Amino acid sequence: MRRRGFSRTLLNPRRRRPLEAYSATPAVEYMEVSPSGDLIARITVVGEIRAIAVTRMTTGEHLFAAAIGDAKVRDLRWIGEGHVLVVTSQTQGIPLLGVSRRELFFGQVLDLEKKKLVQVLDRTPDVLAVLIGPASIRRTEEGPTLFARGFNITTGQIDLHRINLTTGRGRSVESMDREIEDYVLDGDGKVIAMARYVERGGRWSLRLPKGHGFSESWAVDAPVDTPSLMGMGRTPRTIIVGADRPDLAAEDEDSETADVLFEVNVDTGEWSRLPFEHHPDFLVHHPRTRLLVGGGRMEEDGTHYEFVDPAAARRWGAIERAFAGKRPVLTSWNDAQNLIVVFNDIGEPGLYQLVDFTRGKADVLAEAYPTIPTDLVGEMRPIHYAAADGLDIPGYLTLPPGVEAPSGLPLIVLAHGGPASQDEAGFDWWAQALASRGYAVLQANFRGSTGYGLAFLEAGYGEWGRKMQTDLSDGVRWLAAEGIIDPERVCIVGASYGGYAAMAGLTLDAGVYRCGVAVAGVSDLRRMVNWEARQEGRNDSQTVRYWNRFMGAARLNDRALDALSPARLAETVDRPLLLIHGKDDTVVPIEQSRVMAEAMRRAGKPVEFIELQGEDHWLSRADTRQQMLRETVRFLEANNPVGPN
Fold it and tell me: Which residue in 76, 175, 200, 372 has the most C-beta neighbors within 10 A?
């Protein structure tokens, strides 16, 4: 019985997809329908080369196609019918301004009539052609308009600029200094709210129009968790603010923070709670008016939507009925909301479809992973188990393709990053790649993860290397007790915080895992927080305060963190460790893996270290992502073989 389910994955090895099928970047990264619904723009990927393509929906005519190189695409949006915004990022520094290497964002505007791309903020006097924060698109009296903030190297201001769509040049329309962290535009492109954050004192304030300028309407001390502006409300003179206001509303148990979503009238300053039944993880605004129409949240079986606009609610209700048993994601819709692009990857490798309400049909537009058949997608089962202290830990177990009655499987614990993040239902290329090689894959949403309310998140504070770590190994013990996995054949893998968890699994939670693979992981907590302080030039920045709280440090350079740092515990490791890190990582510096590798070598412990050329923190490049997966599987198969050993 133990081998029956396992052996079924080996019945036809010729059907097994190569690892490159999983590690390749999705064939389509973005897909957006134009305001009229006549055109569709998409970003396609072949190897490392990305291209923008625009097609006429009714005829299939290709109106434009051009490579945009190996830049990492971060956003794609229509600016009216004639222009498309493409946002990319690159890992760069600006030495003359003292800006260290980081991920910088750039905008390009495609002019469909002239068939050319221009750079946003290009040739704007004294302003860097770099996007500071997200760009905004509005339908103004002058037509569809793009707004973006840019840094003035002479004044130090980060003003809001109106962008000339033909030249890319910007014209300042609203003065903003460095302490303005966000803003809201109304439907006509006028600023109707700004958020200011003074980091030194941790003071956040909401500024609303008054006379010819703006004045403080409400403020709060927020050294770590700040309120947030979330766009326009349901009417043209309201905005959405996420804030902790116990004087106005009780805490929302569904929220990841103490914040409640309020609708604020910018003329009267009146606050009122939004009528959502469940606290949304994100909001949905109308594609033309930018007014609030709904929100969405992640649940165990996928994305759920709740619309406060009746028309949008009816449309989405029809889509949910048409896609019964699935959890489609709203990707794009036209102004009339009769053409909606949806994406689904529950039980399949990812499919874009166009729902046409006029014709009553849903047409396939593209596949995310076209070389992976649906029947080779391993089943992803939601699971729950009790941690040692009784806390309910949710997560997912992905089985090798074809396995229905798992028994005695080798296991990979795949820990997510963050740690304030979560694993979600849907196609996970990393988990599916490992499952395709015969492993069961556990993705646990340990305490400190998002998606399960504020109390669950706060339960992770100060638990790096402690209960956050044993939440993972408690899952191993539960799966073993159920007979699903073989407890003697378990390894741990993860990236970012998950990389820390992989190293901590071999040091702070020893005896559970046969090996570990840490990708871009944190190995020395005190060194990591000190690096963050140097990056920001402040010992008491909001980022430093955040990490001290989550890691359980009393202050910057708290030596108590050393007892939780795998690099300082290398002599306790008795299992092999593979370290992988991108040289262009600006989130967790590569020195974190170099320090761990050196500590392991000094202690005479088994370690391999692979540096990925030109790779960032998110494994954005196809070739290095493939290298990471190839080396990971090689290492796992050597140290935790799928077959008898």
Answer: 372
Cis ω for the linkage preceding 606 (within 30 of 0)? no
Query: Rounded distance, CA 187 to CA 289, Å?
Result: 6
Query: How distant is the alpha carbon of residue 252 from its chain centre?
Result: 23
CA 80, chain centre distance (Å): 27
Give the rounded distance of the alpha carbon of 146 from its chain centre: 24
Please state the pTM of the whole predicted model: 0.93
If one counts every other C-beta atom within 10 angstroms of the C-beta of residue 90, the result is 15
Residue 322 confidence (pLDDT) above 90: yes
- List pLDDT tens digits, range 427-451: 999 999 999 999 999 999 999 999 9
Non-local CB neighbours of 604 within 8 Å, separated by 6+ positions:
none
pLDDT bin (cut points 50, 70, 90) of residue 645 is low
What is the percent of the chain with per-residue pLDDT over 90, rounded to a whole number?
A: 84
What pLDDT is recorded for position 157? 95
Query: Quick one: angle between helices 591-602 and 525-536, nearest 10?
Result: 150
Taking alpha carbons only, the member of 355, 332, 331 closest to residue 343 is 331
Reported confidence tier of residue 363, pLDDT bands at 50, 70, 90: very high
Give the integer Cα–Cα distance in Å for 146 and 143. Answer: 10
**Residue 612: HSE in the Cβ half-sphere, 13 Å Cα cutoff:** 29
Burial zone of 361 (CB within 10 Å; 0-12 exposed, 13-18 middle, 19+ buried) = exposed
134: buried, middle or exposed (CB in 10 Å: 19+, 13-18, 0-12)? Answer: middle
- Give the CA angle between residues 357, 361, 364 to the nearest 5°: 120
**Rounded average pLDDT over 86-101:** 81
Question: In the β-sheet with 191-198, what is the strand arrangement from edge to edge?
Answer: 180-185, 191-198, 203-210, 213-221
Q: What's the rounded Cα separation, in Å, for the pair 257 and 197?
A: 18
pLDDT for residue 6 is more than 60: no
| Sequence letter at residue 23 | S
Question: Residue 636: phi, psi to the nearest 5?
Answer: -65, -45
Instruction: Give phi and psi for 25, each to the nearest 5.
Output: -65, 150
Measured CA to CA, the distance from residue 568 to residue 265 in angstroms comes to 53
Cα–Cα distance, 242 to 236 (Å, whole number) = 18
Q: What is the mean pLDDT of residues 367-374?
A: 95
Q: Which residues contact 609 (CB under 8 A, 6 or more apart)?
A: 578, 579, 580, 581, 593, 594, 597
Q: Give yes or no for a contact between 378 and 403, defined as CB atoms under 8 angstroms apart.
A: yes
pLDDT of residue 535: 85
Cβ–Cβ < 8 Å for 433, 20: no
